[in-house]
Amino acid sequence: MDTEKTTATRTPGGQSELGLASELPSSAQPSPVPATKKALQDVLLAEGLLAVKLSVDCQSLEQFQEALLKKLGQNSLGTRRRYAKSLLRWFFSDGIDGLFRRSWLAYGDEAIVGDLLRWSFLEREPVMGGCVADALFPLENGISIPATYFDKLLMDFLHEAPPEKTRERLKINLKKLGFLDRAKGKPDPVLSKNSRFRLELTRIRRYTQEYASP
Predict the structure, then answer these.
(1) Which of 125, 123, 117, 118 has its CA nearest to residue 37?
(2) Whole-structure pTM over 0.70, yes or no?
(3) How far apart are CA 180 and CA 173, in angstroms?
(4) Half-sphere exposure of 112 (CA within 13 A, CB side)
(5) How far is residue 118's CA from residue 114's CA, in Å, rounded to a whole number?
(6) Collapsing DSSP states into helix, strand and coil, what is residue 190?
(7) What are the φ/ψ torsions at residue 30 (nearest 5 degrees)?
(8) pLDDT in tens, 107-155
């Protein structure tokens, strides 16, 4: 892709509803976002790190889910169940003895696990992944991001004008993921000066999937 081009394009990837023991496909073919998934979810990095640590002492997905429901800090049981479902889909589609638990046991490093959490979230959420790989990657660090910059990419996915709530949650998630910062004296967020490694990692992973696909 021409690194000078700033027009956002559609990213590969798909989503499916999660059963506890289900595995999600990792497709490199573009897929539309289902109508029920038009609202973006909040990224849960702190909860993801907690889940990785809890997985060490769990022997089954059922035991793991029970531990999550007990340890997540939200007051509402419904919210904890929804968060647990998202954490399993984003980070444990390969089971509890997968990448994240093995990485934690091998390194015990929250920074390493944090970058893995960011990558896995972007891989499982194609709208967010597309914004990072196609819209942010070509930009220079520190550049201001206008409020409407992501609108075309969102319209390509949603097939309609994005709701204001979706636009705001997208920007909030990108800040939580470490890609956008607030700059003093500027009304719009800027591309974080510390985000280049994460952009490169996301880009490399995406094209590795594309070229490895039959």
Answers:
(1) 125
(2) yes
(3) 9
(4) 11
(5) 6
(6) strand
(7) -60, 140
(8) 999 998 998 999 899 989 988 988 888 888 888 888 888 878 898 888 8
Q: Which two tokens stand for residue 162?
A: 């994005």
66-90 pLDDT tens trace: 999 999 999 999 999 999 999 999 9
Residue type at 147 in one-letter notation: A
CA angle, 109 then 100 then 40, to 5°: 105
Q: Which residues, 6 or more positions from 29, have their beta carbon under 8 angstroms from its beta carbon?
A: 12, 14, 213
Strands 190-191 and 180-181: antiparallel
User: What's the CA gap between 104 and 106, in Å, rounded?
Assistant: 5
Q: 102: how many CB neighbours lie within 10 A of its CB?
A: 12
In which residue are the tokens 């990072």 written? 132
Look up residue 54 and give its DSSP letter: H
